[in-house]
Amino acid sequence: MCGVFGIVGVPKAAEITYYALVALQHRGQEAAGIAAADGERIRAHRGLGLVTDVLAKETLQQLAGDLAMGHVRYSTAGSNTVQNAQPIVVGTHRGQVALAHNGNLVNAPRLRIALEKAGSLFQSSSDTEVVLHLLARAGEMPFADAVVQAVRQVRGGFALVLLREDRLVALRDPHGLRPLALGQLGDAWCVASESCAFEAIGARFVRDLAPGELVEITRDGLTSRRWAEPQPRLCVFEHIYFARPDSDIDGWNVHAVRKRMGRLLAKYHPAPGDIVIGVPDSSISAASGYAEQSGIPYEMGLIKNKYIARTFIQPSQEMREAGVRMKLNAVRSVVSGRRVILVDDSIVRGTTIRRIVEMLREAGATEVHVRISSPPYRHPCHYGIDTAEKQLLAAHRSVVQMCTDIGADSLAFLSVAEMMEAFGFDETSAYPFCNACFSGDYPTEVEAFDKFDLERPAREGVTA
Amino acid sequence: MCGVFGIVGVPKAAEITYYALVALQHRGQEAAGIAAADGERIRAHRGLGLVTDVLAKETLQQLAGDLAMGHVRYSTAGSNTVQNAQPIVVGTHRGQVALAHNGNLVNAPRLRIALEKAGSLFQSSSDTEVVLHLLARAGEMPFADAVVQAVRQVRGGFALVLLREDRLVALRDPHGLRPLALGQLGDAWCVASESCAFEAIGARFVRDLAPGELVEITRDGLTSRRWAEPQPRLCVFEHIYFARPDSDIDGWNVHAVRKRMGRLLAKYHPAPGDIVIGVPDSSISAASGYAEQSGIPYEMGLIKNKYIARTFIQPSQEMREAGVRMKLNAVRSVVSGRRVILVDDSIVRGTTIRRIVEMLREAGATEVHVRISSPPYRHPCHYGIDTAEKQLLAAHRSVVQMCTDIGADSLAFLSVAEMMEAFGFDETSAYPFCNACFSGDYPTEVEAFDKFDLERPAREGVTA
Amino acid sequence: MCGVFGIVGVPKAAEITYYALVALQHRGQEAAGIAAADGERIRAHRGLGLVTDVLAKETLQQLAGDLAMGHVRYSTAGSNTVQNAQPIVVGTHRGQVALAHNGNLVNAPRLRIALEKAGSLFQSSSDTEVVLHLLARAGEMPFADAVVQAVRQVRGGFALVLLREDRLVALRDPHGLRPLALGQLGDAWCVASESCAFEAIGARFVRDLAPGELVEITRDGLTSRRWAEPQPRLCVFEHIYFARPDSDIDGWNVHAVRKRMGRLLAKYHPAPGDIVIGVPDSSISAASGYAEQSGIPYEMGLIKNKYIARTFIQPSQEMREAGVRMKLNAVRSVVSGRRVILVDDSIVRGTTIRRIVEMLREAGATEVHVRISSPPYRHPCHYGIDTAEKQLLAAHRSVVQMCTDIGADSLAFLSVAEMMEAFGFDETSAYPFCNACFSGDYPTEVEAFDKFDLERPAREGVTA
Amino acid sequence: MCGVFGIVGVPKAAEITYYALVALQHRGQEAAGIAAADGERIRAHRGLGLVTDVLAKETLQQLAGDLAMGHVRYSTAGSNTVQNAQPIVVGTHRGQVALAHNGNLVNAPRLRIALEKAGSLFQSSSDTEVVLHLLARAGEMPFADAVVQAVRQVRGGFALVLLREDRLVALRDPHGLRPLALGQLGDAWCVASESCAFEAIGARFVRDLAPGELVEITRDGLTSRRWAEPQPRLCVFEHIYFARPDSDIDGWNVHAVRKRMGRLLAKYHPAPGDIVIGVPDSSISAASGYAEQSGIPYEMGLIKNKYIARTFIQPSQEMREAGVRMKLNAVRSVVSGRRVILVDDSIVRGTTIRRIVEMLREAGATEVHVRISSPPYRHPCHYGIDTAEKQLLAAHRSVVQMCTDIGADSLAFLSVAEMMEAFGFDETSAYPFCNACFSGDYPTEVEAFDKFDLERPAREGVTA
After folding, report:
1. Would residue C245 count as lying in a domain?
2. Alpha carbon distances (Å) from C64 to C43, C399, D380
3. pLDDT for A28-43, tens place per residue?
4. pLDDT of residue A460
């Protein structure tokens, strides 16, 4: 999970990009970077941390030009290095190219080994670098053609933004597994992972890029082409968890979808409760839907501490045993003596929900009924979400077993069909979504892929 | 507005204090500090920024001992210096004393001038230092007696925590204008501005300190005394805005009070709307109360960006005009074509609410009816809240004028009596609350006070 | 040991002060600070570290005004806190006062206890704060008179600079134990611990302040008074070790004095050697004098690494045993097979010279004859140099014993009379110097003084 | 100009490397980095600044293993980016490789263009990256063979250190233009740009690598091969200016050579003076040689401020005109009324020497005779020293013109033959030195080379 943004034809493009990235910050807090171009050269800056940590005023001023693009990177284990931050900027026989990428390329390890054998050398463990090597090896042809030639060799879910000194190319994979939206700020075209970035900068949301679509943006305007046959398999987890509730993705408003999921959850999986509580922040929409549908009052029974910063000293085991509990707090006077219906958007590892159930009981809840606004998460995602099968609570467990595991009085999930109803589909529909994490039905070939493949000894190391 | 905490008789008292301060961080983000004692000496560290910025692991380890106290400081103009951070630690003829303070002393400027004439020298512009000078000039007597002798000379709203090498003294002003709660972690007694700090560290909330009460805590236990006749005038604004919703203050749960305010707002001040929206984060409770009472659905129509950190580059005027809008975003698909009832907890200057109304209209709201869950804020607070009369929108304006000012279709406030109903009082009650900001009825003498009095040239300057 | 500077009547006085402090940096690397005044108010900034660490461009710009003064602080054990950094700025009944101080007050502990009993409270463990309390307690009278009344109560060696919003007062103790020079930059008067600060800022050295002299500088000019009967006992160690070789102090150029000491050392204490080597940097002058007088060539046999910064990771014991040796390196090709005459300015603890002798032998020196250009350092200094008697190698040892201790083939010191000859005095002169560290003959009363007295538990603690 | 170090077969190899780099810090203060290997993988860290800024204790601990190498980088315009810091670590079909490099490759631009055409992509503007691409494209063969195949394609002056997970390869160009020495720490072999690094870590200097020699070091020991026919053209400027005086390079001690140069300067170019002054720090050796030979006393007439750190606020033009002068100070009492012989090691741009002559006159020197211990520097260096022809004062000027330019009373240089005499050669010798900067006689082809060629738009930009 990452966030990308790009814009062409606006003064101080890097500064606009900064604000867009802050709006996309929820998609990745590990690293951030911006590349800008002025028609003649590309300048870039990137680093570890939040957008506001990495990019200072003076830095933005140095990133001159009316073309810019940026990236925020999701925190994944094992690769927390500046070398892996984006955009990556390289020199090739066709000049400077900057690239930012959201998604995963399932065949990157195989491509990398082949490229290395052909004499390419790699400076990061990111699969993004593979795309650049393919691009460098494309022959003499227009830039956008070379990009198409490169991406036709990769498989997976991806949204890419590439910057040249005078143009920007953005594209989406044939399945549309990762989102990418098109906007306009005055006359200037822009692209972003989510439409909330457009709202933040005062731009107008125009439409989503279609799966398999590529746009090339210059100061003269936008041209679009279909670089691959679209086979829509949109990522349902964007709607369930990742995206900001105020974004519209592929035609659905995220908050509205979540609220409908909550309503359907109440309809199909009622629970005997006095109050409905959502796990902040991502489950608030679903919980309020559940409350409305059921007529059971929605209460703020869990408070999240928003000051747990990067430098927070995590409580030691000793302190945790002594009761220190920082991130979430159950509100005793709300919860005490009540039967709680606890709504969460999903269960991945199950550790958080287990702790919340325990916390609610300690605060005096007489019963805790857990309702999840998505199906059991059983299969690892290969398209941009960082999960290993063995970590998934639902992988090899029944709902009854899971209920016992998390210590709830009852537990229920939406089925895939019920969840799809929230998007307006009935059981006869051919869903345009990838539900592989729930069903195991992957839209692409899946190589025996291990996200650490690209970080095996031979590639690791440089931390700055 | 500040937050204080203190604890006696627990290993690693400074570390416990760190977690308690993080839980109190909403009460002040300007500066933070901790003082700890081991029976023989006091060690302290303080600095500008969040608790997690100021206090590193190594620092906490150096603050040895089983007694500790800490402070978080609210951001006020003109005094953003380490010199004004707390706790203040001084040497006097009775040994080391550390002091942390929440509140304002209305007679501090007069006391300071008198003390200076008597040869005292001041190293900060904080009124807290006045208390220490009075304490230093108290004669030979037990520590707690000397504290009482000092505080009997000050007027205002205050909660004080004082640390000696082997004991902690905490007290509340006679009106109880600032909150202070008593808790227990195992056998160890602790005090905190709000009970949410106890939840965070696994301590048990015992009771609030009474107005005019002083407690002295040693390793042997707690003794309490009434140092002044209690005349309860609790601060209603703690419940309206400052406190965390999961805190209980003086017998009321903050979230529950806010929700009742929202219900009463709907009952007495209905509005013709399709959806209810609260201004995040502090008005969510009241808005959900309004929605429940009115039967109009509550929606997340405003999203707050939680990544606007201290280092965020504020948009220039030019960027703001271009539409850059970072803190709050209106959700178009929720708002568009709807009549919005916008619930906020209060109007102080009016600039924020004006921008939100405008933003909602731009997002397509057909009508915007503003409902405020407190009365018009007309008079400056002299007891810890940083407002000047000239900045108050309501100071010299009718509700109709204010409605025009903020661009709403209608505007209504709770009356003082309606607000008091949320606490369970009817019109015949003698409210135990200070409502001076709404009524102008101040519980203490009010000198011609100017918060910058203590920062006139003669006292300003040292920034580190 | 510290350095002070002050100037009145020049635009950007704080910036000028910055450059003067960088020139005085050798007098103290622990902390630095500047206070500036614009006729109406004083603004200050101070912090731990080098001048260039503590003071950034923006900070200097905020320190507005045409009056300024600054301080660099020497690294002493146990008090490395911002609270002890200078200038100290306080508010008193006579307005703001900033104070910077070089020296030690031998009766500070006694004065402090008395002040505390009278109700003063102390925020640092620095003896400088005592002067400010005495000043705060002086009655209504002109500022300079009040300063005189305060300093008449203190004993010791000191050079003080005090800043008011519109004037600067500087003074030197009756014995002139600490240096203070007067200069002029255009028409603007300035004072500095050493004349090298004047050279750095393009100012003209006018003269030294006399012992017991006070100058008051306003925009209108300078007035001088004799506040105490002068009894000159200048510090000889300034010339031996502390001062920069390009400074002139009390009429002698430091480099010239050191070179003459080296010549006299060669004359009275010849040694059989092939080359003369000085310990960098402070002994280079003396060593070159020795070489010239003896006709034995001077060689660079020891190289100092100038990149050992504050953040240098000190070699562990394990690494030191493995041979890691960073600060000084003996040049094998210079030293090998030679009889070395090693000239150092003084022996305090003896640990450094012992290591150097060992290093020279390892590099192949066949003999090492140590010659010290001052007498054995036998008695602790109470006037600004941080030494405890028990740490002094010479305290209870004969020269023969010391020679064995440091592993030299021979060892000789200048006698007090020989050292005084370098200043032009013969044995019949009444030396105007304090030689107490060599002779034990202190110019003032010496209370049973312990530098940690001011840091006993009751005063310690605040680290920021 | 840069410094390199490598070591194999010692515990905590990264820590040893840290100390060696601090000893080599004079060779480059722009950036630093260390790569370490434990037999299985390489880990690295690099950054902008001094060794002590870039490498913290925790970082060193993460760089595990018994093989390590490091680099310090010289400050050159236009490329001050982390991307250009070294060691560079890349993944290739033969695994991880780390490379550090001292020197310049004159044919790098041409090679780079060819590589890019063949599909290589470049992530830095450093010519070092070219070597890695050549290495990546070498076929299947032992590592050292592949290194030889790569470096046979490059021209210029270079000393390279390459690290694999289990071995280290170091080599010197056929002319030996850049130095590289071999040492032993116990049984462990190490290489360093200068022998002073060995002294610092307690290692033994064994010998210099021969021009055209390559050594491969594993835990089992060292093997050496001649990879190119040696044609010794050692860099004379290492002896004149770059190297530390305590280093031995190619059989000559640097201090001793400089001192002999000073003696010869006095012999062939006497001057009528009262005192000899050297420009600190690099000309002290030559000046003391001049003084000894001439019998004219050597004096410390110029003092260098060693506290001008990276964060120093450079005086504005306004301040400089006002007389602010920080780096060097002339000692008035030494200089005043004297005829000064000023010895410097070289004149490159001439700006510094001009200012020093002026400063000496202002301090009262009656005459200033400048003597330079090397010939006029007329031709740009292509082998590691950053000079453009147009910046060279001597490029198109006679000695008489230069004397006028710098404002001296007389000016003289050593001739090439006289300088060579300091190394023991007479005019009949075929000097094994490159004197191209004085003579224009370059030992290699010289392409129309511009150091910014590698930084043309297409390659610039990433600053982190």
Report:
1. no
2. 8, 55, 47
3. 999 999 999 999 999 9
4. 36
D31-37 sheet: strands from edge to edge? D42-48, D31-37, D67-73, D2-8, D188-192, D181-185, D204-208
- C75 contacts: CB under 8 Å, gap ≥ 6: C28, C29, C30
Say whether D333 and C57 touch across the interface (CB within 8 A): no
**SS3 call for C72:** strand
Examine the domain organization and report whether C273 and C382 are in the same domain. Answer: yes
pTM: 0.89
Say whether both B200 and B342 belong to one domain: no
Site of tokens 């315009």: D77
- Residue C70's domain spans which residues? 2-232
Q: How confident is the model at residue C78 (pLDDT cuts 50, 70, 90)?
A: very low
> Is the per-residue pLDDT at A454 higher than 70?
no
Q: Say yes or no: B221 and B297 in one domain.
A: no
Q: Are strands C2-8 and C31-37 parallel, antiparallel or unpaired?
A: unpaired
Interface test with A, best of B22, B58, B292, B321 (most A CBs within 10 A): B22
Shared domain check, C226 and C135: yes
Closest of B44, C329, B198, B177 to residue A323, by C-alpha = B198
Active-site residue, selected from the candidate residues A2, A190, A235, A434: A2
Number of neighbouring beta carbons within 10 Å of residue D59:
18
Q: Which of C19, C307, C334 sits opposite D25 (nearest CB)?
A: C307
Whole-number pLDDT of residue C452: 42
CA distance C357 to chain D (A): 16
Is position C344 within any domain?
yes
Which residue reads 């597994």 in tokens? A177
Out of D133, D459, D464, the one facing A82 most closely (by C-beta) is D464
For A156-198, the DSSP string reads EEEEEEEE-SS-EEEEE-TT--S--EEEEETTEEEEESSTHHH
* CATH code for position A138: 3.60.20.10
Instruction: Say if residue A226 is in the same domain as residue A359.
Output: no
Q: Are residues A155 and A65 located together in one domain of the fold?
A: yes
Residue of chain A nearest D59, judged by CA positions: A463
Nearest to C300 among D196, D284, D330 (CB): D284
Say if residue B150 is in the same domain as residue B268: no
Residues in chain D with CB shorter than 8 Å from the CB of C334 are 246, 253, 255-256
The answer, yes or no, to whether A and C have at least 3 beta-carbon pairs within 8 Å is: no
Asked, for residue B441, whether it belongs to a domain, the answer is no
User: Of these residues, B2, B196, B403, B437, which one is catalytic?
Assistant: B2
Across A385-399, B365-379, D287-301, D397-411, least confident range: A385-399
Task: Give the whole-number percent of chain D exceeding pLDDT 90.
Answer: 80
Q: Residue C24: which of C206, C139, C192, C233 has the closest Cα?
A: C192
Q: Are residues B276 and B402 in the same domain?
A: yes
CB contact at 8 A, D308 and D329: no
Tokens 């900070």: give the residue: C59
| Nearest Cα residue to D271 out of D404, D356, D372 | D372
Of A304, A301, A305, nearest to A276 by C-alpha is A301
Q: Is A30 part of a structural domain of the chain? A: yes
Closest chain B residue to A18, measured at CA: B313
**C19/D315 CB distance under 8 A:** yes
Return d(Cα C135, Cα C103) in angstroms, integer.
Answer: 18
Q: Over the stretch B111-153, which tens digit does the pLDDT of each residue have?
A: 999 999 999 999 888 888 999 999 999 988 999 999 999 999 9
In sequence order, the 6+-apart residues with CB closer than 8 A to the CB of A191 are: A4, A5, A6, A7, A161, A168, A170, A180, A181, A182, A183, A209, A215, A217
Nearest one of A255, A247, A287, A250 to A434, comparing CA atoms: A250
Cβ atoms of A455 and A129 closer than 8 Å: no
Mean pLDDT, to the nearest integer, of B193-213? 96
Number of domains observed in the structure of chain D: 2
Q: For the domain that residue D362 is a member of, what is the CATH number?
A: 3.40.50.2020
Contact (CB, 8 A) for A35 and A42:
yes
